Amino acid sequence: MSRRRRTLSTKKKIALLVSAATVAGGGAFALAATSNAASVQTAQTSVACQGLATALGNNQSFIADQKAHPDSQSAARIANREAVIAQIKVQQQASGCAVGESAQGSQTAQQPAQSAPAKTAPAASAPAQTAPANNAGGAAATGQQVCTGSTVTLSGEAGAPAASSNQFPAGTKLKVTNLDNNKSTTVQVTSVSGSCVLLNNAAFEQVREPGKFLIRKARIEKVG
User: Comparing 22-31, 34-43, 121-130, which segment has the lowest mean pLDDT?
Assistant: First the structure.
């Protein structure tokens, strides 16, 4: 009889050990999940994430504008920007940022008041692919500093160094200087965006600080 009681006692011990291991494993999994969630950064906690979120927001704004004012080339432009957005999301994930987080840059709040009357103009007179004719940026003199106080981020587009803008027409040359490291690049505007200046990947690499996707202190000059 005593031998049987010892056998039952051993089985109970094994069951208790298995239960304890299961609970401990579940706790470790919960801690790991919590740790992974806590490691995700946002635009409020990371400059890199803020820059990517701004770039994503600007591209989404561009797509929305193309859909609101379509022309014969809108479908191609939208497809291109959707590919850019997909690439930005890849960069967000690689940088530990919240994937899909979107934000508009400070430039949106700085648009001049005279841009409002554009609502009364016929849609055909202001095609989406050209910068507004009455924008103060496009009328700036060569060598003049423009877009004072604007931050600069990347569009996510590939290709040779270039820029996009909602204030300067295609062909305009802009010099962008990162005042945090005094690096500068001179690029030509090749397309429209939702900001004063968005640099494509190649141009942004020329002036960026390591690990950052946003230039908080920038000097932007029209040079041609």
Answer: 121-130
